[in-house]
Amino acid sequence: MSFDEGSFTGDFASATTSRPSPTRFAACYSDLAAAGATAIVSIHVSGELSGTIESARAAARDAPVPVEVIDSRSIAMGLGYPVLAAARTAASGASLEAVTAAARRCMEATRTFFYVDTLDYLRRSGRIGAAASLVGSALMIKPLLHVVDGRISLLEKVRTAARAIARLEDLAVRAAGDGPVEVAVQHLGARERAEALAERLPKRISGLVDLRVVEVGAVIGVHVGPGMLGLTVTSCDH
């Protein structure tokens, strides 16, 4: 049985994901053109983690208006912040080139770190190597990960969940530096953890201009499992 992301309520451990087909992208691009769009900037999850962008590129070749397909090289709000930057630029009446450039600048200014209770979900879906997942499971180590060059990589190994979350906070503070930044705290089935972390960040990040707490959707949930806690830090548009 298949579901769109918003309607899935099942067990993440037994679920799988599938890329949208090129025909779905083609229909979307055609609908946007029919509604008056003269160009489209189509930004997607890392091509190292999903084939979604290949479907987008296939559809873009025959679209009725120019389509710029961008690989965000990230996930979750690591994708979301470049999308927001592009949307703000487009709303100002900027050209296709300027909107594309805004998205790419934001990508360069955005870092994502996250904690998972277990690497089993990432290993099972092939999003992290078997060697890295064995390191965590053999010693009951709590892994901290980050997104580098579009891939999910093991960053550090911490002994307890509490220490892992404290270290996650430290990494975000260091990434933020002293300039103005936005931060997204992301979670899956861990709202109390996420909100507690969000309460601490304004005391430690002097340049924090926007802070949001969001729960990730089912597509990411399938690959990270319940209990995930992530932080995305961006300085774009500031």
What does this structure look like?
The chain is α/β, with parallel strands linked by helices and 238 residues long. 43% of the residues lie in helices and 22% in strands. The chain contains 9 helices and 8 strands. It has helices spanning 22-34, 52-60, 76-91, 96-108, 120-124, 130-139, 161-176, 191-204, 218-224, and strands spanning 40-44, 67-71, 110-115, 142-148, 151-158, 181-187, 208-215, 229-234. Helix 1 packs across helix 2 (52-60) and helix 3 (76-91) runs antiparallel to helix 4. The model is unreliable at 1-5 (pLDDT under 50).
Low-pLDDT parts are 1-5
Structural class: alpha/beta
First-last Cα distance: 44 Å
What strand order characterises the main sheet? Answer: 5-4-3-8-6-7
**Percent in strands:** 15-25%
Order of helices and strands: HEHEHHEHHEEHEHEHE
Number of strands: 8
In round numbers, the mean pLDDT is 85
Radius of gyration: 18 Å
The total count of helices amounts to 9
Helicity, as a percent range: 40-55%
**What is the molecular shape?**
globular
Strand count, sense and barrel status of the largest sheet are: 6 strands, mixed
How would the blueprint of this fold be written?
Elements: H1 22-34, E1 40-44, H2 52-60, E2 67-71, H3 76-91, H4 96-108, E3 110-115, H5 120-124, H6 130-139, E4 142-148, E5 151-158, H7 161-176, E6 181-187, H8 191-204, E7 208-215, H9 218-224, E8 229-234
Parallel strand pairs: 1-2, 6-7
Antiparallel strand pairs: 3-4, 3-8, 4-5, 6-8
